[in-house]
Design goal:
The complex is a heterodimer of chains A (541) and B (621). With 541 residues, chain A is an alpha+beta fold. Chain A has three domains: 47-114; 135-260, no CATH class; 294-540, MetI-like (MetI-like fold), CATH 1.10.3720.10. Chain A has 15 helices and 13 strands. Chain A has helices spanning 2-6, 9-38, 91-94, 146-192, 197-228, 261-277, 290-321, 326-340, 343-366, 381-406, 409-417, 422-451, 454-457, 486-496, 500-538, and strands at residues 47-51, 56-66, 82-87, 98-102, 106-110, 115-120, 126-135, 138-142, 231-236, 242-246, 250-254, 280-281, 286-287. In chain A, a hairpin with a 5-residue loop joins strand 6 and strand 7 (126-135). In chain A, helix 7 packs antiparallel against helix 12 and helix 14 (486-496) runs antiparallel to helix 15 (500-538). The radius of gyration of chain A is 31 Å and the shape is flat. Chain B has 621 residues and is of the alpha+beta class. In chain B, the strands form seven sheets. Chain B has a four-stranded antiparallel beta sheet, with no helix packed on it. Chain B has a four-stranded antiparallel beta sheet with strand order 5-6-7-8, with no helix packed on it. A four-stranded antiparallel beta sheet of chain B has the order 9-10-11-12, with no helix packed on it. In chain B, a hairpin with a 5-residue loop joins strand 9 and strand 10. Classes of the chains: A alpha+beta (541), B alpha+beta (621). At the A-B interface, helix 2, helix 8, helix 9, helix 12 and helix 14 of A face helix 2, helix 3, helix 4, helix 5 and helix 7 of B.
Amino acid sequence: MKTLFKSGDIFLWFTGAVLGVIILMVAGLLLVVVLNGAGVFWPSAVVEVRTKAGQIFMGEIKAEEEIPPGSLPENMQDESHVRIQLKIGNRDVYGVDFKWINYYELAALQYPADALCIERMEYGNMYGRLIGVKNDGVYIAKGDNAWPSFQNLAEKSTDLVRERIALEKKSIGAINYEIEQLRLRKKRLEFYNEGALAELAEIDRQVSEKQKSYESLMLKVTDLTRRAAEASVVVEIAGGSQKELPLSQVVRFYQPNQMGFFAKLQMYVQKVWEFLREDPRESNTEGGVFPAIFGTVLMVIIMTLAVVPFGVVAALYLREYANQGPFVRLTRIAVNNLAGVPSIVFGIFGLGFFVYFCGGSLDQFLFAERLPSPTWGTGGILWASLTLALLTVPVVIVATEEALVAVPRGARDGSLALGATKWQTTWRVVLPAATPGMLTGVILAMARGAGEVAPLMITGVVKLAPNLPLDGTFPFLHLDRKFMHLGFHIYDVGFQSPNVEAAKPMVFMTALLLILIVLLLNLTAIIIRARLRKKYQGSTF
Amino acid sequence: MRSLEIPLENDEQISIVSPSLSSKNFAAGTTRGRVIEFSLQFKAEDSDERRTVIPILNIGKTTQLDSAGRRLKLMRYGTGERTVMVGIAEGSNELLIAGREEDGEVVRMRIGLEDEPTALVINDFKSELMAGFEDGSLRVVPLSGEAGVSVQVAPRGTSVTALEYLIGEVTLIVGDAQGNISGWMNVRNRGLQKTRDFGRRNKAIIQVVPSWRNKCFVAADAGGGFGLYHSTSERLLSESSDSTSVITHLSFAPKADGLVLSDAAGIKTFHLINDHPEVSWGTLFSKIWYESYDKPEYTWQSSGGTDDFEPKLSMIPLIFGTIKATLYAMLFAIPMAVLGALYTSQFAHPRIRTIIKPTVEIMAALPSVVIGFIAGLWLAPLLRDVLVEFVLVLLLSPLIIILLVWLFNKLPTNITSPFRHGYEVVLMIPAVILAVGLCYLLGNWIETAVFNGDVPHWLYTAFDIRYDQRNSIVIGVAMAFATMPIIFTITEDSLSSVPVHLTSASLALGASRWQTAVKVVLPAASAGIFSAIMIGLGRAVGETMIVLMATGNTPIMDWSIFNGMRTLSANIAVEIPEAPQGGSLYRTLFLSGLILFIMTFFVNTVAELIRQRLRKKYASM
């Protein structure tokens, strides 16, 4: 012990322990996200419990914990100290999604094979037993025959719903957009040249034409809605009461207690796919996050397009052309400083400069007829991307400078000796050699941009955007639109949604997705950098 | 322009007019002791060319306030659930009060005063009257008939010449014959207290007119001048003293964007550009005695539900919150990062280093929104349950680890040697898990045995400490994720770049690895470590999402580790979506952005300069 202290070895071990804690912290956080996120879509068994008081509940066991001794009744101290959290679903019946049940209050707990779980468009999951299937209010199948016809009809109804949604989104969306464009054109004509009566009449005629086709489409939609809701399923929920649910409300249904591992796996993959591909439902607490993924990716791409030329040119100038004097030193300090400026400060800069100043001026010069409703003078994907570009430009500058420094002197000298000009050397020799290094910087900047939320919150991200910023209507890329973002989705659903407990699994899943994207980008950068180092170590310029 | 007439009896004249702040109705007191209520309406008529606004006078009820029919010298009028008018007849010491309930029943009351009042005001609840006197005193007269109290509001012997409530009817503005203007307010248990001082005008104050919109008021003096003041900021916003004739009437435009005054020369109108009257250095950075508060305080509360809300825009609670969050984050992050970096750079085997560095890079790359989410929704509820265990881990686990190391060193060398020489960390990870596990078990037992399973409850009953679920401990741990990587990386950088000949020399002289690291490497790299800490500090100061999600965002000033805070950055994120562009709140938020920028700019520049100097120093070694 004495030598251990005297030589200080014990402290050495201790610093090792501290490092161990750091590693464990990172691993722990990743583990928490993965454990909570990855299991969300696994179809878990449905349990039926009967309490001693005679109440019956059906649902999924979500958690099990020890009852705090304080809240255990005096005479129950000897009983089991465990309680379970049951996701009972059926929000339309119970009003809540979850229920804590103490073990000592349980009379029976079983896993009925015919337990049915239905994912619905509204009110969360429904748990119960299948009674029968109705068409137009008449039972067409009951009891054992119900299941196949349920599957059959549900499929048909899903197709109808899909058709309706496609119609609403594509055709009706397009018509609405066109009508809006016509309205804006009319406003513009009225604003600038009042005399153009013929044109105005032409616009009015077009609008009424569009209105007609809109109405006929709406008729179709109503028809589809009606047809999809014709058939319904009757479910007996725990406790014996029966609920009828139109099949158009059914998203997915399964009997988890009968499913084998592979059936569950198949369903899991399906659900993950839905998560990645579908729009959110139920104020973002269910469904997918496709618009958020799309928004994040598009925002990062626009940001990259803005940041790369800017950062690379700045680094080229600083490293290759500028005299290494006090000015360059000062610039370096400024760039490093810029990297340390809080992201929220960039955010309000973006709001004040891009949104209100640039956007506001654009509106005044180009879209004066639409004022006071802003076109560019409000948050949008362009302004958000530019704000993030400012935020990430130091990353690109620093990485590019490092890459330029790493280009061996011999290569430059060789090129210059062969009679190439300074520009030719830079363009043909230095830049290609530095590309992987620059790429590392760009990827790191992308990762930083993808994970940043605070500046976006005030420059254009919304919790629910009706349209994607990129779609099939001219001019295809709508830079003035607001967009959804994975990071903001986490904040919004996890902290602003009315039903945080029910939304939590989705948030974990979204967090997992965001971490995966960011880590993937970072890993790519790390790998490129590692290979680069090897390459330069081995090169013999 | 159009003039409208209030029907009067023969040779009767209007002696005084009083508006009711709450309903924008008016009442006129006459020379015959009558009170005539009236209201004004404006009707707009659009023709092709122009818009004509026609004022319409609606005459309401008439009340004979003074049964003797004397001239009313002072009169006050208030509406609401019941209508109250209070008057003083010429040469009388008696308060004449008439109250009318909604059903039209009239109640009359007379209260005798010792002296003849020089100014009079009634509050909107119609519960109290304030009467000012020639000797500079103010008497609070409860309408319930109880005896009131007297307060000296002006210098002794100086007549109180103007009394007026500001919107909200909390602050009472008092003007006196010497020209002093002050603000008074009822403070709990302490009665009427002077809370505002607006300085002095050259002549006696003859009229105070409150704004309909905010806590501004105009005070006119007997010399024909007037000043526009704001109550909260105690600012004299604007003044005019060029008029030689005395102002007889003065009023705000309904949107408080104009002033109308009449004097002997006629009617004058002023356009009022009155942006941000509530902001001053004082309101931003010093204690302000806000309305309905017990004492001057630093408070941030930018918006309220009603029109008469007084915005409280003190930056101090936010700066305090920022410092608190940074402090707790640094308490945790600095020792961890520096010790971890010391091990990595000095003791770890290169192969271990190739694992650690990407791990730290991953840590740096974690989006702060994810960290904040985990901290707010997973760690915060968990910590509430394992508080004792957590404290035990902090206190005991170092000891347990030292014990484990000592035991391990007792083992034969052939077992221990694979874990020496840079591989210690491999063994320490399970040791840490073991130590935490032991502390958990012990803590669990203590929690049940001593605290009856609910520590926050125990804290509250035993020490009166309020436990917020999202508190500074959560912030400390969560912010460590954001700040540790950057401190770690830069520290490790500067430790590794200490010239090798220094360490070699030290080791050659027989110093142990630890002695070399602490006595040679650490001092040589101390400037670099300092710069690392500064940069980490800058990062913590500006961190937004973690604080936003892992604290309750309450702008309180309390160092307690069990409470949360609101930082400058989180405040911007919370409030700017609601702030109208160009408004006072909007600009104040930009100011807090500027403060943040200055804080980080200072810290980062210092750090950068130190690093550059250090690089030169190493180069010359």
